[in-house]
Specification:
The chain is of the alpha+beta class. About 15% of the residues lie in helices and about 40% in strands. The chain has one domain: 2-Layer Sandwich (Alpha-D-Glucose-1,6-Bisphosphate, Chain A, domain 4). InterPro entries: DUF1990, UCP010260.
């Protein structure tokens, strides 16, 4: 599937630019979010953070990923969030993947039926001192249909899940997550 195909729920696939260390979004009418948190230090932390490329940031945060498998550009998937007895289905497409010696990650875009419209990126990167960081980026606006009036509640849920994402790749013995920046 072409990651830029017109059946995405927003007009600019790849806008969160996971391959780029710097992000200066210009998206009038969209909620912009970026934050970077420390997940660990050294080769063990870097190796463990590679689980990101197998959806660990999502599965360790309470989502199911269908179909399971490694992150692949152009793949259409459905993320399923359990909210009490309800299951919320989130159709997505992976629109960008980066996999270099010091930077790994991906961005996915929403497809019709997703509760919100936009794109989200998850990137782990290693600096010269061996610190391993997770960067979260997103562009969000209300979805369509029954989801549109629920957008304020969805923003609350988004904040809850971001907190989970920040912890998802941290090794349990490495201590608390340190936030370095937030937009």
């Amino acid at each position: 599937m072409d990651p830029a195909a017109p059946d995405l729920g927003y007009p600019f696939p790849g806008a969160t630019r996971p391959a780029d260390a710097r992000w200066d979004p210009v998206a009038p009418g969209w909620r912009v979010h970026e934050e970077t948190v420390l997940v660990g230090r050294g080769d063990d932390a870097w190796t463990a953070a590679g689980a990101l490329m197998r959806w660990a940031v999502k599965t360790r945060s309470g989502f199911a990923v269908h179909p399971p498998g490694p992150v692949t550009t152009g793949a259409d998937l459905v993320l399923v969030a359990a909210v009490g007895p309800l299951r919320v289905r989130e159709p997505i497409r992976v629109v960008a993947v980066v996999d270099t010696p010091d930077r790994k990650g991906f961005a996915y875009g929403t497809r019709p039926g997703h509760p919100v419209s936009g794109e989200e990126a998850f990137v782990v990167h290693r600096d010269a001192e061996g610190a391993v960081w997770l960067t979260l980026r997103s562009l969000t606006r209300p979805g369509t249909g029954i989801w549109r009036p629920l957008f304020p509640l969805l923003l609350v849920a988004q904040r809850v899940y971001r907190r989970r994402y920040r912890r998802a790749l941290v090794h349990p013995t490495r201590g608390p997550v340190d936030r370095i920046s937030r937009r």
